[in-house]
Design goal:
Elements lengths: L5 H10 L2 E2 L7 H4 L9 H12 L3 E8 L6 H6 L5 H15 L6 E6 L16 H6 L2 H13 L4 E7 L6 H19 L6 E5 L11 H13 L2
Parallel strand pairs: 1-2, 2-3, 3-4, 4-5
């Protein structure tokens, strides 16, 4: 849209200093087949960012959705580690030194799935176990040591039973990753805020943010 809508493009340049692709770097778009990587759409966004002296954040290297059909049909416990490693390494190296940050792992927590660690029953968890998260961050760090590496999730905005549960599970995941020496640098909070929702509590949210910051 920044290429075809000049008003929108001008607003982005005026109001933002970092842009994030919506779908251009998700698996379905960037890797339509096992041996083909399609970087052109994201490259155009990076060119736009560079032209206007903006930063760009990569989204996302590991997610349970938006996977191409070949992944769903061929992924198994024998090849999953190599497929994931190859993907992260290829994509991150393509943008090495050019990307401000990456959402390395996206939405890995799902309380409704009933696991004690809160992890979502994703294809990656099924095939690789919880270690897939650490693996993803280590491969990304090796592929671009300068990029800021982020865990991204949603549902932490409101002071509700779900929100409090999600915050606790995310904090537990971050603590475990830090304890393991995983090269994780930040938490991305994908906000879905509604003006009239009465459950936003700035004090409890600030406390949560401080707990995240205290992890380093």
């Amino acid at each position: 849209q920044v290429e075809t809508d000049s008003v929108f493009a001008k607003a982005i340049v005026q109001e933002c200093n970092i842009i994030v692709p919506e779908s251009e770097l998700k698996w379905r778009v960037v890797r339509p087949s096992p041996s083909v990587y399609h970087f052109a759409p994201a490259d155009k966004l990076l060119s736009f960012a560079n032209t206007h002296n903006m930063k760009m954040r990569g989204h996302t290297l590991v997610w349970h959705e938006d996977l191409p059909s070949w992944v769903n049909s061929s992924l198994n416990s024998l090849n999953a580690k190599q497929i994931l490693t190859d993907h992260i390494s290829t994509v991150v190296k393509h943008y090495a030194g050019k990307m401000h940050s990456w959402d390395v792992v996206n939405e890995a927590i799902e309380p409704k799935d009933g696991r004690s660690d809160g992890l979502r029953n994703s294809p990656w968890l099924t095939m690789l176990g919880p270690e897939y998260i650490d693996l993803a961050f280590r491969v990304a760090a090796a592929s671009d040591p300068k990029a800021l590496l982020t865990y991204n999730d949603f549902g932490m905005d409101y002071d509700t039973p779900f929100g409090r549960k999600k915050r606790m599970l995310v904090l537990n995941l971050l603590r475990q990753l830090k304890a393991n020496g995983t090269p994780i640098h930040a938490l991305g909070i994908q906000a879905h805020l509604h003006r009239d929702n009465p459950n936003f509590n700035p004090d409890s949210f600030s406390t949560f943010l401080q707990e995240v910051a205290d992890l380093g």
